[in-house]
């Protein structure tokens, strides 16, 4: 599930690379087919997670499920539908994309939702692997237009924040699906280095060759900026603010889980920015 998304898409590319037969589920299968081409071991199936019957058809005969779902007010219900369909279809193992601070009293609403899904999964008795990655480097691209104008806006003061490349999350997901002994555990996933916003602004300035000024707003002002200027829905703006306040309350530091599982270092933020340098450039 989530094969058209950031993490699921990267996982699908990894499974294709490894020539592993798999089934990719999307609400828009034609678009997914066009994206992956024809010469692959992937079977593309159309299903909406709001439709339990379609999910059961999609999962029929499967042994393992990778479950990634977009954040939305319906996320918990959709993921629970997918887990129930997995149970009905005799799936053995679920790898769920979760998030840090997935706890019943988490200060982050989305993480409380992840905890509810994790608890539902635990109650099924299926083998459950929980991936809890920190902030996706790929989401930094949402800041690219502002960075191109020379500013980085946030509400994180100068606390360190973990970033991870979704391709590393996907590579770890593939290992947990394919390598016996890695399943059934919970993994907090980070890149190799944590960055505060001022450090991130400095790195972006160095790599783009143009100064980037860090603007730190009070959380309510940042929320207003995200809704009015970035045109985010209220719930998503609240999520971004909550995630940043989580880092303030619980300063983050990197771990070596990605390297331990993959046998190679995690991708760096430096390399990620280099790869996407053109996107941080001002529009001519
Ligand atoms: N962003 C971060 O920094 C971060 C950090 C840690 C954890 N996370 C977690 O990562 C997850 C999101 O992962 P992502 O960014 O890789 O995903 P994404 O790019 O947002 O893609 C989400 C996927 O959800 C699928 N989807 C949405 N509604 C659906 C429905 N009704 N039925 C079936 N599929 C549906 C979409 O599939 P179709 O459109 O093809 O149907 C799409 O492939 C969230 O749970 C988030 O909490 C994010």
From TrEMBL:
Pfam families: NmrA. Residues 1-243 form the NmrA-like domain. SUPFAM superfamilies: NAD(P)-binding Rossmann-fold domains. PANTHER family: PRESTALK A DIFFERENTIATION PROTEIN A (PTHR43162:SF1), PTHR43162. This is Uncharacterized conserved protein YbjT, contains NAD(P)-binding and DUF2867 domains.
């Amino acid at each position: 599930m989530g094969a058209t998304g950031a993490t699921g898409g990267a996982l699908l590319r990894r499974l294709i690379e490894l020539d592993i037969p798999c089934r990719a589920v999307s609400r828009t299968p034609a678009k997914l087919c066009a994206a992956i081409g024809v010469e692959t071991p992937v079977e593309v199936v159309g299903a909406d997670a709001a439709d339990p019957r379609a999910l059961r058809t999609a999962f029929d005969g499967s042994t393992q499920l990778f479950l990634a779902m977009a954040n939305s007010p319906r996320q918990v219900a959709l993921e629970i539908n997918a887990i129930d369909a997995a149970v009905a279809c005799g799936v053995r193992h679920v790898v769920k994309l979760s998030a840090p601070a997935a706890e019943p009293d988490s200060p982050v609403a989305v993480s409380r939702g992840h905890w509810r899904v994790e608890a539902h999964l635990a109650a099924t008795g299926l083998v459950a692997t929980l991936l809890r990655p920190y902030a996706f480097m790929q989401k930094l691209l949402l800041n690219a237009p502002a960075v191109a104008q020379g500013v980085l806006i946030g509400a994180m003061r100068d606390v360190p924040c973990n970033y991870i490349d979704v391709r590393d999350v996907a590579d770890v997901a593939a290992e947990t699906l394919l390598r016996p002994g890695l399943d059934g555990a919970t993994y907090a996933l980070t890149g190799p280095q944590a960055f505060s916003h001022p450090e991130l602004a400095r790195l972006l300035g160095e790599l783009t060759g143009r100064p980037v000024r860090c603007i730190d707003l009070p959380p309510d002002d940042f929320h207003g900026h995200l809704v009015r200027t970035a045109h985010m829905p209220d719930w998503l703006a609240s999520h971004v603010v909550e995630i940043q306040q989580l880092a303030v309350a619980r300063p983050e530091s990197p771990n070596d889980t990605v390297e331990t599982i993959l046998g190679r270092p995690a991708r760096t933020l430096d390399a990620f920015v280099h790869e996407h340098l053109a996107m941080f450039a001002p529009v001519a």
